[in-house]
Amino acid sequence: MAVLLILPFVAIYGLVFIYPTIKMFILSFTDAPLIGAGDWVGLENYERLPRDRRFHTALWNTFYFVALTVIPGTLVALVISLGINRLKGRLQSLVLALFFLPYILPVSVVYLIWDWTLNFQFGIAMHLFDWAGADRIPVFKSTAWFMPAVGFVTIWWTAGFSILLFLAGRRAIPEEIYEAASLDNSGSWSTFSRVTWPLMWPVTALVSTIQLILQLKIFDQVYLFSQGGRPNDNLVLVYYVFQRAFQSNQGGRAAAVAVVLFVIVIVVSVLNFQLTRLSGGRRK
Amino acid sequence: MLNLKGLAAGICVATALVSSAAASETVVWWDFLSGGDGVRMKQMIQDFNKEHEGQITIDATTLEWGVPFYSKVQTSAAVGEAPDIMTYHASRIPLAVEQGILTEVTSADWQQMGLGKNDYADATWDAVTIDGKQYAVPLDTHPVVLYYNKDILGKAGLLTENGVPKGMDSRDGFTATLQALKAAGVKYPLGSVTADGNFMFRTIYSLMGQQDGVLMSGDEFLAGDNAEKLQNALAVLQDWTNEGLQSTYTDYPATVALFTSGEAAMMINGVWEVPTMTDAHAKGKLFEWGAVELPVIFDHPSTYADSHTFAIPANKGKEMSKARHDAVLEVMSWISRNSLFWATAGHIPAYGPVTNSAEYKAMEPNATYSSLTANMIFDPKSPKAGIAGPIFDVMSSYFVPTLNGEMEPAKAVEEIKYELNDL
């Protein structure tokens, strides 16, 4: 009976995930174009990667982006959720809704909002710069500003979901513990560092792992904000896979990059989850 | 999921029954024309449908221009879901042929349409030909031109008796015109799409063409002194930036806005913005304006152009019926013959009898800039070329910093050459 019940899931999972993944591995050893099969070339697609300048850019930018978003994004969400937790009743729902609102926007809308805001000629933010007497900054057209700006936009966009998770985690902590802490004359910092932080650690580990996997796979925002600008300087791994597959018609080489990303995601997320679990365990 | 599929199949069968009952062919059409030219194309489709009532109906969908359009075409042709006819950039044909997603337009097809080689300019015919076979029917060529604000230039005394800008024949002359505009208090003498390197490829490649430079010789990029010619082209544009003569970090919509609001006195842009200007002017919302062939900065006139064409996708595992194929040929033939209206979208119709007609020669501003047809250059014929292709991305990444004065032209050319040859 149990087998029968999980069969539909296993069948669909096998069809849309396991099978394509195996095909991707096989594809990465061929010189296939985007559509159709190719000849076996062994490890050639992988051997090219260390010498491939665009691959280097993509790899570096992906990790840079992860550094800019995962930990900062998790901390920002934690701080906001603790703030929201102190509010009461309707006000709490209202503020929570406001922080959650960006999360329901499609990425194209997020892109348009921020492109309008930061447009070099007509953006609202640029008028603020003028007013403050500062030089205008071509945010999405300069390599120094691009990744930090996209990172900021991403945190603004996705923080809502992490806030919800943190809020649930905070509410799961019994109030008695806080009462006991206040009886012991615990100040707000020691209450946070000795009660809230350790008890919320499992949620923090979860949020940071979700963020990590999500940000390693970053594509949409980077692609949209690069349009017409400096795409090859802003490459991230998924963008590079897209370029190879859809622009250069090189399915095999694209698959090799995808396999590398696949391995990175698995290794890094397992490492992250284990590390956060272990260090959390020691605290207890 | 299976139910949905069954339902979809049912609907397909139903529509097939309905259309065969009416003995009329429905031609599924995809295009990427969403600007002022898109409005005109919709008008033409309507006219076509009216004239062919009961025989052929075009069912048109407009998709997002550029990468989204071409990605969708590639994948849908592979699974037999592509349309019956689609618009295609001539510059993208080499890649499409390599991928096997276009159906050849045979000599029998040309005969049936009543069109042929002699109806087109050589460069245009060549742009749709791969290894002696044609893969598309050219609709137009769309070069870039120089738009100018007659009111501002007139007031600054920078118009000739013919009403065109002064100094169009040399680098010094044109720079002097820009400087005079600056001195007259114009914020941006030249509105330039400096935030979009993809777009600037058109201008820069034109300037290379003015020195007889080419991008590809055989399989090599920027061989010999071609690198130097690219560097010359970049240096001119960077000088204009350094002297404050053109707008910096300006994206496409902002450039058009700067020009139409009068903050930029001139603008280099595609002919497809002609309807924007014509329509605004007709409503009394725009100054007096004109459009001319690009200035000759180097040795001789030369302008980069691409061509909109019609192509028939090679739908995998789905043979097109004879009746449907005939209908598609009729669509291509009719639109070509009636492309005089398409010229109001700014484009230069590819079909010779239209551009040779007295009506076309009386059209403005088209007649003023149509002289450039003799000096057109197209993209190199390579699967890597074409709008939204890999060459564009490499160029764009280095054009943007160079045009805005962040990178030396020599350095940019060195990097571009390395990356192009590394593609």
Automatic annotation (TrEMBL), chain A:
List the Pfam families hit by this protein, alphabetically: BPD_transp_1
Extract the Gene3D superfamilies matched here: MetI-like
Localization? Cell membrane
Entry similarity comment: Belongs to the binding-protein-dependent transport system permease family.
Residues folding into a coiled coil are: none
Alphabetical keyword list? Cell membrane, Membrane, Sugar transport, Transmembrane, Transmembrane helix, Transport
UniProt source species = Roseibium marinum
Where is it found, in Gene Ontology cellular component terms?
A: plasma membrane
Q: How does it sit in the membrane?
A: Multi-pass membrane protein
According to its UniProt entry, the protein's GO biological process terms are:
transmembrane transport
User: What PROSITE patterns does UniProt report for this protein, alphabetically?
Assistant: ABC_TM1
- Indicate the principal place this protein occupies in or around the cell: membrane
The cross-references to CDD domains, in alphabetical order and at most eight, read:
TM_PBP2 (cd06261)
Write down what this protein is called. Answer: Multiple sugar transport system permease protein
UniProtKB/TrEMBL annotation, chain B:
Q: What is one process in the GO biological process aspect for this record? A: maltodextrin transmembrane transport
Q: Name one GO molecular function term.
A: maltose binding
> Pfam families from the xrefs?
SBP_bac_8 (PF13416)
Q: What are the boundaries of the signal sequence?
A: 1-21
The yes or no answer to whether the keyword GTP-binding is present is no
Q: Does the keyword Signal apply?
A: yes
Its keywords, alphabetically, are:
Periplasm, Signal, Sugar transport, Transport
Output the Gene Ontology cellular-component terms. ATP-binding cassette (ABC) transporter complex, substrate-binding subunit-containing
Q: Which domain of life is it from?
A: Bacteria
InterPro entries in UniProt: SBP
The UniProt similarity line reads: Belongs to the bacterial solute-binding protein 1 family.
What the entry lists under PANTHER family is as follows: MALTOSE-BINDING PERIPLASMIC PROTEIN, MALTOSE_MALTODEXTRIN-BINDING PERIPLASMIC PROTEIN
The protein's name is Multiple sugar transport system substrate-binding protein
Lineage of the organism: Bacteria, Pseudomonadati, Pseudomonadota, Alphaproteobacteria, Hyphomicrobiales
